[in-house]
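Reopening this ticket.

The earlier resolution said the output was attached, but the attachment link was broken on my side. Pasting everything inline this time so it's all in one place.
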Amino acid sequence: MQATLDDLSTVPLDDVLDGVERRLGRQLKRQDGHFSKYNGTAGFRTDESTWVRLAWRRTAEIDTQAWTGFEAAAAIQGVPRPEWLASAVWTDEARGVVWRADEMTLVEGGALSATGDITVDPGLPEQWWTDLRAALTNLAAHSTDRVSMGQTHLSRRIHEVYGEDIDTTITDWACAHGDLGYANLCGPRLALIDWESWGMGPVGWDAACLWSTSLTVPALAERVQSLFSDILSTRSGKLSQLLLCANVERAYRRTGTKAPLTDSMATIAESLLRELR
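Inline output:
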């Protein structure tokens, strides 16, 4: 059952959506639902022009931090994002899961990519980039005990791929969105969505994540590098980029299949390693 629930568009869901409507007091526009093919989430407009995000977790596998990310983000100031309004959580014994439905204000314009992949420059206005830099600056200043990317994971992954002779110690930390890519950025008016993964991370983590997802469009990657050059050029920024390179290389080693960015990120990693060593 877990495999099929990874894409909610492939399973009967009417009883679950009935439960959402009953608990939140909203009618969902079911025919216009948006479904992730990978992480078991779905989103729906409502009759009140709000947005409801539906997610599930196995009963014994609930990650409290991720599960409460949307409501916890309500305390963040100076970052354009949907306003969290309400939630409903309930147990589904038949499926062995817990469902969570979060209602939030509707972001007009939608995500810049439905899948996270990007193949053409979206032609975002200059103000969008200015607002993004300001938003991430404000976010970095937020104080939290949540963790998005910790030292242990970063060190383990880099050492696994590139060896133990690299000092991976992060000394500069800041609050980050944690999953900053084009599936979680809206335009042409900026908004950041999907706040499950936010918390403390290396300075430059968000910028590095956006840079890595931009590499398929070189001009876009250059724009990100230019906008965040002061952050990405720091040691923590370089280690953040190296971690993302390590993730791609690790996937290649495990599967034997190259992704579109395998070779280019290997070249980038060589440069970063020279600088970090």
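Reporter confirms the inline version is readable. The longest strand covers residues 50-58. DSSP finds eleven helices and nine strands in the chain.
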